[in-house]
Design a protein that fits this description.
The protein contains 14 helices and 3 strands. The relative contact order is 0.23. The protein is mostly helical. It has one domain. The two termini are 15 Å apart. The longest helix is centred in the middle third of the chain and has 39 residues, at 125-163. The chain has helices at residues 2-21, 27-31, 37-58, 60-65, 80-99, 106-121, 125-163, 208-214, 224-256, 269-287, 289-298, 304-323, 330-345, 350-378; strands spanning 170-180, 197-207, 216-223.
């Protein structure tokens, strides 16, 4: 019975995580109107699944962090009571934020739930010190790093673009330009060729309209805005992939700590991971709209240059943290980057930012209270 409850708790947690987190990687694509909502949701679902599949190869250290090992006594870590308490408490916390349309952190919710169980058990100071070093500190530092990186990089990239004269209509054009023969003095040019022209292949930088006016025949051009849109789309996909890599093992850890997945086809990692990955994808596909609107339209007005910077920062920080087993929050990193861009561009909406930060502040204590209550009720 406990095994079935654990599987249900993990499924609920993965669903809640997908509903609240999946769209964050493509929020800038939707907010800048690069993609429609439907295109964005299909992109994030597919790429997040790919990240989930590879997560235990790239981020196995994270899977160990959320089983409670090293934070609670060995005889408690990995028990059904602890795992069910942590899973349900985190799931309820995240789902509440999703219902009100606020992006929050699965990592914060899980950490809070672990803290609540630790308080009920009464662990010693050394365990709390580890909780601070391994969980709280990365969660506090990551959004500050993202915000700082955005404040530094965005103005630099903007000045570089302007100095190079690159705008929305800038185009790298390749085409043929007609040239007439003009005889030189004392030349032996056949008079019959005077006035005739040849076609020469040229490469130039200008607007698309200028290229069409200048060149004859077919013009092959790379428009700056189109290039940015393509890179932006790939950067959004990178964020989704990074989130799949970083979040899936945290949730799968609740099943990896036990043989609970044996009821669904064996005790191997593949079935456990498949359950989490599919639940995350389904939750994101079916219940992401409210959080999508908050992330995409309520924090700041976004253009493609700004959001490309934010996505690159988010992907780099989250993938780097995953590689070294540091449980950062994709929500905190991506929101921190967007906050920084909003501040740098002067378009930040402080009321919405304040609401999001308030959600972050309450996520951990709510997760802790629920975790403590659930564990106490089962023991």
């Amino acid at each position: 019975m406990a095994t079935l409850i654990l599987i249900a708790a993990v499924f609920f947690l993965a669903w809640s995580n997908g509903a609240n987190d999946n769209f964050k990687g493509v929020a800038t694509l939707y907010g800048s109107r690069t993609l429609t909502f439907r295109q964005s949701i299909w992109l994030t679902t597919g790429v997040t699944l790919a990240g989930s599949i590879l997560s235990l190869v790239l981020a196995s250290a994270l899977a160990k962090a959320f089983t409670g090992k090293g934070l609670v006594p060995p005889e408690i870590a990995g028990t059904s009571e602890l795992l069910i308490s942590v899973g349900l408490a985190a799931a309820l916390t995240i789902m509440l934020a999703t219902v009100i349309g606020m992006p929050t952190s699965t990592t914060h919710a899980l950490t809070g739930a672990l803290l609540g169980v630790a308080i009920v058990i009464g662990v010693d100071a050394a365990n709390y010190a580890k909780l601070w070093d391994k969980f709280f500190l990365p969660l506090l530092v990551s959004p500050i790093l993202a915000l700082g990186a955005a404040l530094i990089l965005y103005p630099i990239l903007t000045r570089t673009r302007k100095k190079m004269g690159v705008g929305r209509q800038t185009c790298l054009c390749v085409g043929t330009s007609p040239r007439e023969y003009v005889p030189l003095a004392n030349s032996r040019t056949d008079i019959s060729t005077i006035g005739e022209s040849t076609q020469s292949l040229e490469v130039s930088v200008g607007s698309g309209a200028e290229c069409v006016e200048r060149y004859d025949g077919r013009v092959v051009g790379i428009n700056a805005q189109q290039a940015v849109d393509v890179i932006h789309t790939f950067s959004g996909a990178a964020v989704c992939f990074a989130r799949g890599v970083n979040d899936t093992p945290k949730i799968a850890a609740l099943l990896l700590a036990t043989g609970g997945a044996g009821l669904i086809g064996g005790t191997g990692i593949s079935w456990k991971l498949a359950l989490v990955a599919l639940a995350m994808a389904a939750g994101g596909f079916l219940q992401a709209r409210k959080v999508a609107e908050t992330m995409s339209h309520r924090i700041t007005d976004l253009n493609t240059g700004q959001v490309l910077t934010g996505n690159l920062i988010t992907a780099a920080l989250v993938l780097g943290a995953s590689r070294f087993g540091v449980p950062v929050s994709t929500t905190h990193v991506s929101c921190g980057a967007i906050f920084g861009i909003g501040v740098a561009s002067g378009g930040a909406r402080l009321k919405t930012i304040g609401q999001i930060v308030l959600t972050w502040v309450t996520t951990l204590p709510l997760g802790a209270a629920l975790g403590a209550a659930l564990y106490w009720s089962m023991t």
